[in-house]
Design brief:
Elements (H helix, E strand, L loop, with lengths): L3 E6 L6 H13 L2 E6 L11 H11 L6 E5 L4 H7 L4 E6 L2 H17 L4 E6 L9 H9 L10 H10 L2
Parallel strand pairs: 1-2, 1-4, 2-3, 4-5
Main location: cytoplasm
EC number: 2.7.7.3
Subcellular location: Cytoplasm
């Protein structure tokens, strides 16, 4: 049986921190679904379709990574793609409490799907999409934070 994982997030936009988690997850699992969602508590800069296209571009060299989107409960989506795992990235201790709550609820909803936490590389521990967007908005240097395709897309948004 193939090991299939879902890596959910808003990815608005995808950063090198996200790519670190995705690349490392792709080494562990046979298939990884990058599942783009619209977080109702955030106002996205990029549409879901734009985010998916950017993710496809920057993960094109990872043959076992697929890009998708979903609405509804994560565990229901994971079941629909036959996933047996969820990948979540952790940057700092502050992420842990929130992630533990989500993981506990997901386990209550479906105890057959395991959650795996991957600690981000230290160089990305401060990095968030929100910070990248703020720096990009003021035309700051972001080339060390996001892939070139994402940098160009951000510059286009903030012309």
């Amino acid at each position: 049986m193939a090991s299939i994982a879902v890596c959910p997030g808003s990815f608005d936009p995808i950063t090198y921190g996200h790519l670190d988690i995705i690349t490392r997850g792709a080494k562990v699992f046979d298939e990884v679904y990058i599942s783009v969602l619209n977080n109702s508590s955030k106002r996205p800069l990029f549409t879901v379709e734009e985010r998916m296209e950017l993710i496809r571009k920057v993960t094109k060299d990872l043959p076992n990574v697929k890009v998708d989107t979903f609405h509804g409960l994560l565990v229901e989506y994971a079941e629909s793609v036959n996933a047996n795992a969820i990948i979540r990235g952790l940057r700092a201790v502050s992420d842990f409490e929130y992630e533990m709550q989500i993981t506990s609820m997901n386990r209550l909803l479906n105890d057959k799907i395991e959650t795996f936490f991957i600690m981000t590389n230290n160089q990305y521990s401060f990095l968030s999409s929100s910070i990248v967007k703020e720096v990009a908005q003021y035309h700051g240097e972001i080339s060390e934070l996001v892939p070139p395709e994402v940098e160009m897309a951000l510059k286009e948004k903030f012309k």
